[in-house]
Amino acid sequence: MTRRPAAAAIAAAAFLLPLLFLSPAGPAPLLAAELKPWAGPTPALNLKDAAGTLHGLEAFRGKVVVVNFWATWCEPCREEMPSLNRLKKSLEGEPVAMFAVNMGEGEGRVAEFLKKVPVDFPVLLDRDSQVTRAWKVTLIPTTFIIGTDGRIRYGYAGERDWSDETVRARILALAKERAGR
For the segment 59-95, what is each residue's pLDDT rounded down to a tens digit? Predict the structure, then answer.
């Protein structure tokens, strides 16, 4: 009997186990198509972009905020970035803000990626990954949708098409909560 199957099973369990606990509300199915409701506090987010401009969540109270954690070396992250940009463009004029938080990479690497895949929202640099850890991100890409009250309403781990109309409708519904529309 070889040890390879056992080692593979242990490696798979070590990778998948943290995914079960992505949401404080409890276990969630891996890469489910639906956004997962979130129950728990919203960690702080105050980071600079490559130009040195500081961005923080408090400045966006009253708006829905989409926060995506990613890295240039992550293939699913690279693949979903254009759909995040399409979502952002489709929400122009709505009370919605969007950030992408790059995990642990330098300005140069991020700038090179953005030359190839430009986006219309701030890309923040979490060079030491402290914010990523505070948000308990264990898989990338991971995206959170924050309501107008500043609370995380939904979380999603894995790649998805963010320009999907059901996502847009969910975000607009959150925006209308505050406006009372």
Answer: 999 999 999 999 999 999 999 999 999 999 999 999 9
Radius of gyration, alpha carbons of the chain: 17
164 Cβ contact partners less than 8 Å away, ≥ 6 residues apart: 83
- The interaxial angle of helices 165-179 and 75-90, nearest 10 deg, is 50
Compute the Cα dihedral for 156, 160, 166, 170 and give only its sign: positive
User: pTM for this one?
Assistant: 0.79
> Over 50: is that where the pLDDT of 117 sits?
yes
pLDDT band at 38 (very low <50, low <70, confident <90, very high): confident
CB atoms within 10 A of CB 21: 12
Q: State the residue for tokens 């939904």.
A: 154
Which run of H or E residues covers position 81? Answer: helix 75-90
Does the N-terminal peptide bond of residue 27 adopt cis geometry, omega within 30 degrees of 0?
A: no
* Pair 105, 71: CB distance under 8 Å: yes
Residue 173: which of 58, 85, 96 has the closest Cα?
96
Nearest to 99 by CA among 41, 141, 133, 159: 141
